[in-house]
């Protein structure tokens, strides 16, 4: 029996199609040159329908950027969960974030175009999930041995150190003539950084 | 300085060779077997060009440089070859290396016909001097995703190494599978031993594992570990990047390496030229030629056509749009393809094949584009 989709389901489906089509064009053409007409053609919807869901090109780009960040956040979480030891999980999550950032389309959207298209404040707001995931991983690792003495402000600072390093490494990889070599070196250095954190030394790999 | 400006260039002798710089991985960590096949194809075509009178009477000379999967070596090689005055550059198998070579060639204004690297983002911006024989990764891997879905696989695990090439492949698979109800589970082989990877697979619900990793290490130990794990008996192992194509795969893995579907760029029925070139390549390589050898042959065939029509100097402003060459795998034309910033042969034939478990020395065609 056919069931009619609700308005909410239709909206969700159209939004998903639009974001998928926009992702392909922003990844390929960059924010400045991607054409909204081409995105509508690809998604199979009218320009009017696009403007019903997104105010302008920037809000559509923000939705694409959010989807990329959610994918990275989920990759961090999945990698963390796959490791019984939270310190291993933390390292695995960092690897997932960095390796997930190097696909050329992701680089173009998240590292090259987003700063100009969205501005620092919006980027930081959207990145909050990935940062929070890093902090949660750190919290679990630091407290794994039953040591709950690390104050929240210290955990915040540790998360800033680790997530800041990750973002800078991702940016360095994006601009490197030899990205694989820079990525490999970045992964080694981020591992060392984690090893230096309080409570991690005894578990150093 | 004035003397330099007014000094006449030495007259070109008619027997002075027209040089093509060839880039290929010939030593590890490059995939040397692929490089050997690539160079065999390039050399065979160059010999045939010379047997047919060369380029307007001048011999065609290949100057081969080993890139060893190292983008910095490739960059240095492009600089050196440009300094030697090559009319064009050809070759390269590894995508990350080809990307660096393409960027440098574009900077220096030397035409580059990339034979075998598939990364969509071969250049970061439109590059008129660069063209490609191999299909783009998104084209071939989309077909591979079709094959997986058609075979009933919805939950796909990928064992990956950190690399732009493998990350691009993962993203393509995700983009193709997710809208059609499929999911991709990523497993980082840099963080997992083969045994730990098997544990993760056993609990993942995946029905297929794709090897987005280098060959022979860690691909070979991974295949051995998975094949030896009774929990994973029904799991399909796939290798879209083509690792099982080469004899080294079969030699190291034997029957365990059979039944691993991969992409190769050969037609369902070889052209008459393909049959003749295949025989010559088999003799030259003392084994069955890989599609990479055909890509090498086609690359020099195209460059010879461009050089004959435009002259060696004219090739520096190569007009890829004018090319019309009958290659070993079909007619070769170049066009602009959305999402690809170089001139692209759209498209060479694409197949999904595997080594026959009943006879690992032969291949079965499972799916065609």
Model description:
The complex is a heterodimer of chains A (205) and B (369). Chain A has 205 residues and is mainly α. In chain A, 76% of the residues lie in helices and 0% in strands. Chain A folds into 2 domains: 1-54, Arc Repressor Mutant, subunit A; 56-203, Tetracycline Repressor, domain 2, CATH 1.10.357. In chain A, helix 6 (104-118) crosses helix 7. Chain A is globular and about 55 Å long. The termini of chain A are far apart. By secondary structure, chain B is α/β, with parallel strands linked by helices. Chain B has helices spanning 2-6, 32-51, 71-83, 95-108, 137-150, 164-177, 194-202, 219-227, 247-253, 272-285, 291-314, and strands at 18-24, 60-66, 88-91, 112-114, 130-132, 155-160, 183-188, 208-212, 236-238, 262-264, 325-327, 330-332, 343-344, 351-356, 359-368. Chain B has a 6-stranded parallel beta sheet with strand order 2-1-3-4-5-13, sandwiched between helices. A 4-stranded parallel beta sheet of chain B has the order 7-6-8-9, sandwiched between helices. Chain B has a 3-stranded antiparallel beta sheet with strand order 10-14-15. The N and C termini of chain B lie far apart (59 Å). The model of chain B is unreliable at 1-11 (pLDDT under 50). The A-B interface holds A 20, 24, 28, 75, 78-79, 82-83, 88, 91-92, 95-96, 98-100, 102-106, 177-181, 183-184, 187 and B 70-72, 75, 96, 100, 103, 119-121, 124, 160, 162-165, 167-168, 170-171, 175, 179, 185-188, 190-191, 200, 338-339.
